[in-house]
Amino acid sequence: MGVFEKLVLGVLPLVPKPIMRPVAQRYVAGEELEDALGKLRTLAGAGYSGIIDILGEDVEGEAQAREVLAEYRRAADGVHATGLEAYVSVKPTHFGLRTSEELALGLYRELAAYCQGLGLFLRVEMEDHSTTEATLRIFEALRADHQNTGLVLQSRLLRTPQDIAALAPGPLSVRMVKGIYLEPADIAHTAADDIRDAFLACARQLFERGAYVSLATHDDLLAERLLALIAELGLGPDRYEFQVLLGVQEPLWAKWREGGHPVRVYVPFGPEWLPYSLRRLRKNPEILRHVVRATLRLG
Ligand code: FAD
How many angstroms separate the CA atoms of 93 and 95, rounded? Predict the structure, then answer.
């Protein structure tokens, strides 16, 4: 990243919301559930399944966490009503993990039971390393009673191969990611090549234990190696899918879809779109330039 981009990144949080909104539209369906359901319909028309995520994290206290649960129930109802192939995905701290692990587990249990009634799947997401242990405990407790649940694991973390080995036997669904949180070098790979190699090794480990693996990446090089692994293991599309973020690297989605590989798109929505969009923009200097131009025009 150049000096210019670094400078812009520094001031991005100060850019007025009206300027950020059109830029964010690329990554976020909108503020309302209806926006997300509309996006799911469009994606389904193009051959992609979906994931609904309500933007937000780190709620404080039980009351707020329960409001998030209510929102997710509404989202699950909405997805169910569309009849589309989609499910919901929740961050542990959005369900109050930082308040209490018991609270978060309780809310995941309620949502998993609710989704089960609707025939929907629920994914437990993974946040920074301070939450990994608790998230694994929550997932294992949840999975014991609800088969319609899955986990996210991060190849960046050195511990992940041991975590995979320690998961209880039985059906397992994992979304494999590199990990969005920059972690300290004593617990995580920091070089891009190492994170990529670890992703491939974790995917192999998961496939070999019979898991269904969602390969969540926009890294074409990594994807080529994953496809070679899938071919080597002789796996059919009932054992894996690619997962991508709304607005990121669309040409890749089409390439995979046309190659006969299932692709699922993560569709975030909600009033808390700004922090999420800022994180996405940090990865994309080209879009940063559009933001700067728009800001200057407004000035
Ligand atoms: P990268 O090497 O980061 O990117 C590959 C290519 O895609 C590069 O060319 C890069 O420039 C481009 N690219 C990546 N992001 C953008 C962008 N925003 N805009 C434009 N180009 C971009 N992480 C977690 O820690 N926990 C989770 O629960 C989690 N869930 C996820 C769910 C899904 C469906 C996906 C796709 C990702 C999720 N992630 C999660 C994020 C993940 O960990 C990575 O940070 C993210 O996918 C970027 O890594 P990459 O594998 O795409 O490779």
Answer: 5
